[in-house]
Design goal:
By secondary structure, the chain is an all-alpha fold. It contains 24 helices and two strands. It has helices at 7-17, 19-43, 47-59, 61-67, 75-102, 104-109, 111-116, 124-150, 155-182, 186-209, 230-236, 248-267, 292-319, 325-329, 333-343, 348-372, 374-381, 383-388, 394-428, 431-444, 446-462, 467-484, 492-495, 513-536, and strands at 212-213, 220-221. The protein has a two-stranded antiparallel sheet.
Length: 542
């Protein structure tokens, strides 16, 4: 028996197990690309508009850092600049989650040991996970290219962008293959992989921010840090510009090196353990762990801290560019109207800040979904049985996790508003006023995030085995409606499916209590329904 025996059967099992996730994945990225292409063609329909976009983007350090360099004044180049960051981060994170799910999580839950009792080679589980993830990236990249071609964009550039985004996914699948061998837990492996994604983004952003503007003023030559990042390599392909296919060789080489490293680590560790040994805890547990609330906080505190650091950094960055908005938008009336429409006011700065708060709300809603889904993680791993064997009731256990998820979401939104206000206050000269104003704007977003958390509780109670896939699908729907619904001019009943649509446009408008109270009531009702169904069903382990 070779080390790869059973790979084909495990690949079929992974495809069967993740069929819903893979379908959503394969369709989501092309849908985002198509939506951005349609909106950009309306906003930057003329060559003069695209030239203005390219020149202002090249001149703005902030635009280069967040969107990357524009490779020219073509429509495809503008589409790439607008969609690249979202597509790249989605491909990277989805790939890392998939690999960890089929490797380290299987070991953590005992599935890998059960499979290993059959005719399965040492490297088969990791190989099957990589085959599945690489296939998903290739299909998604191909569909992305096809929808862009269908939108009358050049075929060569469309294929280059699809290949670049697929390459990002493959690169970080390989990264996750390594972190799954290093960490002894799925959460640790996902955390390391997410940190790698963040580092890659920072390197790419620094390289593009420090780059030099080309002689025509419409492009940027990236500095060396960008060449240290898989996200930077994808940008250097220059879809719809140079279409530099040889750059993709860096992605292939990096992926092969990382996968080879993962195989070496797999051969030199015990099943169920990581290269880094799990630290032994103290002989006596802290008193706070004697209660369900204390245990829930212990499990959630690392996630809350990581999100808090990210939110503050992003808030300071976004707030500090508020004074550059007029120069960035230039005289493009369509872009100005879009920002005003998204932010709910003709005052561009307030519209921009309101849009940023809406984006933070969606991001923090992602944290809420992640935190509440810890319920399913505990149930699937079998640890919930041990907790419920004590005097802890089901409602008390569920509400303890929900409490920290809700408090965490509120605190993160307050931090998002305060940090954005601090960044903008430093450039506008009114730090106390802006911090107070935008902290309120951040807190106003909380009820919508809590509605999404309540939805996760309902899914956990009614459909525990599908709760993870359906919860993230609901979150993705809210993201698409929030970011692209206005651009696509979707009918209001469709936009109303997202709870974020009903929030007042703060800071452009005064906060209204009625929609906030209604959303809170919906969140409470959903939580009550989820709690009632959870109390009456059997535990769904695995």
């Amino acid at each position: 028996m070779s080390a790869f025996t059973g790979t084909a059967r495990l690949t079929r099992l992974a495809l069967r197990r993740d069929r819903v996730r893979l379908l959503v994945w394969a369709l989501a990225l092309p849908a985002v690309g198509a939506a951005v292409a349609q909106s950009v063609s309306g906003i930057y329909g003329t060559e003069s508009d695209r030239i203005g976009y390219a020149t202002t983007s090249a001149a703005s350090v902030v635009a280069r850092a967040f969107n990357g360099p524009v490779s020219g004044p073509s429509l495809g180049s503008v589409v790439t600049a607008e969609a690249y960051t979202m597509l790249a981060l989605l491909a990277a994170l989805l790939s890392t989650f998939a690999v960890v799910r089929h490797t380290r999580q299987n070991e953590e839950t005992g599935r890998a040991e059960l499979l290993g009792s059959a005719v399965v080679g040492r490297h088969a589980p990791l190989t099957a996970a990589l085959f599945t993830t690489v296939a998903a990236n290739l299909v998604s990249g191909l569909l992305l290219a096809l929808v862009l071609v269908a939108g009358d964009l050049p075929a060569a550039g469309s294929l280059a962008l699809g290949a670049a985004i697929a390459g990002i996914g493959v690169s970080f699948a390989a990264v996750a293959a390594v972190t799954a061998q290093i960490s002894g837990t799925a959460r640790g492996a996902n955390g390391m992989a997410a940190a790698a994604v963040g580092l890659a983004f920072l390197l790419r952003a620094a390289g593009d921010a420090w780059g030099t503007v080309t002689a025509d003023g419409m492009g940027v030559v990236s500095a060396w840090p960008s060449w240290l990042s898989p996200l930077g390599w994808a940008n250097q392909v220059q879809p719809f510009g140079g279409n530099r296919w040889p750059v993709l060789a860096l992605t292939v080489g990096f992926a092969l090196l990382a996968v080879g490293t993962a195989f070496v680590l797999t051969a030199h560790r015990d099943l169920g353990s990581g290269v880094l040994a799990v630290r032994r805890g103290p002989a006596a547990a802290a008193s706070g762990l004697l209660s369900p609330g204390g245990l829930a906080w212990r499990l959630q505190r690392g996630v809350v801290l990581g999100w808090a650091i990210g939110v503050v950094v992003m808030g300071l960055s976004m707030g500090s560019v508020g004074d550059q908005l007029d120069s960035f938008v230039g005289e493009n009336e369509a872009a100005s109207e879009l920002i005003a429409q998204l932010g709910g006011t003709e005052e561009l700065v307030d519209a921009f800040l309101g849009t940023m708060m809406a984006m933070f709300a969606l991001a923090v809603a992602g944290f809420a979904v992640q935190a509440v889904l810890r319920l399913r993680t505990e149930e699937a791993a079998g640890t919930l049985e041990g907790v419920l064997a004590t005097a802890v009731s089901r409602p008390r256990w569920l509400l303890s996790h929900l409490l920290w998820a809700a408090l965490g979401a509120v605190v993160l939104l307050a931090l998002a508003g305060a940090s954005t206000g601090l960044g903008y206050g430093l450039v506008s000269g009114d730090v106390p006023g802006e911090v107070a104003r935008l902290t309120v704007a951040g807190l106003v977003q909380a009820p919508a995030a809590l509605v999404l958390a309540g939805l996760v509780v309902v899914l956990f109670g009614l459909l525990p085995r599908l709760s993870v896939a359906l919860s993230w699908s609901g979150f993705l729907l809210c993201v698409l409606l929030g970011q692209l619904g206005v651009l696509l001019e979707l009918p209001q009943p469709v936009l109303n499916l997202s709870p974020f649509t009903h929030l007042p446009a703060v800071p452009a408008a005064d906060p209204s209590a009625t929609p906030l109270v209604v959303l809170l009531a919906v969140a409470v009702a959903l939580t009550g329904l989820g709690l009632a169904t959870f109390r009456r069903r059997d535990l769904a382990i695995g």
